[in-house]
Amino acid sequence: MTEKFKILGKYVKDMSSETPDIETFLFVKDNIFKYQLGIDIKSKAVKDKHIEVSTTLKFEDKNKNLKKSYFEIVLATIVRISDEVKDKKELEKIILCDVQIIIYPDLEKSFLDLLHNSGYPGIKFEKKIDFEDLYKKKFN
Description:
The protein is of the alpha+beta class. The protein has one domain: Bacterial Protein-export protein SecB (Roll), CATH 3.10.420.10. The protein is built from three helices and four strands, in the order E-H-E-E-E-H-H.
């Protein structure tokens, strides 16, 4: 393997859309522009240089409204790391940046499909996540 990692597969590990009632749906439909997208990345070693990377997207209202919907998706990615990767910093960059750049377009599409199928067809994420920039800010 000449590259530093290889994505062996990915799957939706969990997906959730929660809107408890029609009043909440109508309220959220009018206020969904206030919702914020959050991302969380976790990883765990599986075996033989294999890592499961779980990328979670949440779209939620951070305000104290009683009526709110909740949307979340978790994409699990199975990654094999090359034997040449020895440095912890290099491994962190692969997990937090390189893998994310590859998987994010599919993850975003699946999440937008969830939102659209949940009754919110006009939702778009205008601002794209810059994983390189996020990584640099976190570790520099």
